[in-house]
């Protein structure tokens, strides 16, 4: 099956006595058995469900749906992107191990790795993954995992996945990539030899800004361990959120196609606004498009507050990826906790705005941003 077909045909068939066209919501904490033999059959692997913290048809559907699109054999859905990242890291690293992560990580991932993983006895080094030499230099005897993002936030650096895989193979390390910004519609890291791929399904997988969820996919051996972590840490996703995630996922192809095209058009127009200091938008992220996030640096020519106040129907929200266009202010939200010097070293300035482009008519999107720039111009 091709991508767009798999995108709508990932759910398991409902049982013969069910006539529901869509999958019912298994809004249950546990599953009932006829007798002890019936219950034993779960432990013999003949039945799939026992207790929702161990697994539930709606959350399993979401894990399977994303795994299918990523070309991976197994997946698990969890309560958030962050809990999927934790489950993935813990399926590879244990106390005493060392992880190397890119320094331009999503803020929440940085917090997890810098403040929580050391409590599990896992040491993390943050290095510039654009510099191959720096990654190699950071490898120690204890290193087990290389961690990066396929498209970074908010500067939209496209990771060289082949290079990450090559270094890992040379040193016998595992690899894990956060594919949230790209989605499998644009980039499929597992196909490029990456071991674990993680998503904040809160973003494009769900697509409607109505759930908090994560999905981890990869090899069955690692996913078996990751599922155990999710069960033991209690970071399972609720059935209704799993169901909503599946509903959102079915339109991923259409949304990404439209949102990417709108973003490309907006980036082109903004590049021609001579007073905008810089427009960040990838040029060759994939053959299917370059994603739906455009980051701009307003520089000295515009008043930041007036710009944000002049955006009409565009919402200011600390998230991305919904069907509605929205903006965020990285220096004040995702990168707020970072010292200004570190932030500026990464290139995240005080005048930077991250735009998450939605599915609206491209002309309205462009018009709204041009009007806001006009209003905010410092004469
Ligand atoms: C939002 C996000 C996360 C964290 O996901 P949550 O669902 O908020 O836990 C991780 N990585 C990236 C790239 C994100 O955008």
Automatic annotation (TrEMBL):
Reactions mediated catalytically: L-homocysteine + H2O = 2-oxobutanoate + hydrogen sulfide + NH4(+) + H(+); L-methionine + H2O = methanethiol + 2-oxobutanoate + NH4(+)
UniProt xrefs under Gene3D superfamilies: Aspartate Aminotransferase, domain 1 (3.90.1150.10), Type I PLP-dependent aspartate aminotransferase-like (Major domain) (3.40.640.10)
Species for this entry: Texcoconibacillus texcoconensis
Protein EC: 4.4.1.2
Keyword Transferase assigned: yes
Keywords, in A-Z order: Pyridoxal phosphate, Transferase
Domain of life per record: Bacteria
Catalytic class of the enzyme: lyase
InterPro entries: Cys/Met-Metab_PyrdxlP-dep_enz, Cys_met_metab_PP, PyrdxlP-dep_Trfase, PyrdxlP-dep_Trfase_major, PyrdxlP-dep_Trfase_small
GO molecular function: homocysteine desulfhydrase activity; methionine gamma-lyase activity; pyridoxal phosphate binding; transferase activity
Any GO CC annotation of this UniProt entry: cytoplasm
Pfam families xrefs: Cys_Met_Meta_PP (PF01053)
Family, similarity comment: Belongs to the trans-sulfuration enzymes family.
Cofactor field: pyridoxal 5'-phosphate
Residue ranges the record marks as coiled coil: none
Name recorded for this polypeptide: homocysteine desulfhydrase
PANTHER family for the chain: METHIONINE GAMMA-LYASE (PTHR11808:SF89), TRANS-SULFURATION ENZYME FAMILY MEMBER (PTHR11808)
GO process terms (BP): transsulfuration
Chain positions with N6-(pyridoxal phosphate)lysine modification: 203
């Amino acid at each position: 099956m091709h991508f767009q077909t798999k995108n709508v045909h990932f759910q398991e068939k409902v049982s013969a006595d069910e006539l529901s066209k869509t999958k019912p919501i298994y809004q249950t904490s546990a599953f009932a058995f006829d007798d002890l033999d019936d219950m034993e059959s779960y432990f013999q692997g003949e039945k799939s469900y026992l207790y929702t913290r161990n697994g539930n048809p709606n959350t399993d559907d979401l894990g399977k749906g994303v795994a299918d699109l990523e070309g991976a054999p197994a997946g698990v859905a969890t309560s958030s992107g962050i809990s999927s990242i934790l489950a993935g890291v813990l399926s590879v690293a244990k106390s005493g191990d060392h992880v190397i992560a890119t320094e331009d990580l999503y803020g929440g991932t940085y917090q997890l790795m810098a403040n929580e993983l050391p409590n599990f006895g896992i040491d993390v080094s943050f290095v510039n993954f654009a510099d191959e030499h720096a990654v190699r230099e950071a490898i120690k005897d204890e290193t087990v995992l290389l961690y990066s993002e396929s498209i970074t936030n908010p500067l939209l650096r496209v990771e060289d996945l082949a290079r990450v895989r090559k270094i890992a193979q040379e040193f016998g390390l595992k690899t894990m990539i956060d594919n949230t910004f790209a989605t499998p519609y644009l980039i499929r890291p597992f196909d490029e030899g990456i071991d674990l791929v993680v998503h904040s399904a809160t973003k494009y997988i769900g697509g409607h800004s109505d759930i908090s969820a994560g999905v981890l996919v990869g090899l069955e051996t690692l996913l078996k361990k990751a599922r155990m972590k999710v069960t033991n840490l209690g970071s399972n996703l609720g059935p209704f959120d799993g169901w909503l995630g599946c509903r959102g996922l079915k339109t991923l192809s259409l949304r990404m196609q439209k949102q990417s095209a709108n973003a490309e058009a907006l980036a082109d127009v903004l590049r021609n606004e001579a007073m905008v200091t810089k427009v960040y938008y990838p040029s060759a992220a994939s053959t299917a498009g370059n994603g739906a996030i455009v980051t701009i640096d307003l520089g000295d020519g515009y008043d930041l507050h007036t710009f944000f106040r002049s955006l009409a129907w565009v919402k200011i929200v600390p998230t991305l990826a919904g069907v509605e266009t929205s903006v965020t202010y990285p220096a004040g939200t995702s990168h707020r906790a970072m010292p200004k010097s570190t932030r500026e070293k990464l290139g995240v300035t005080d005048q930077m705005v991250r735009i998450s482009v939605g599915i609206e008519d491209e002309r309205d999107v462009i018009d709204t941003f041009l009007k806001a720039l006009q209003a905010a111009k410092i004469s």
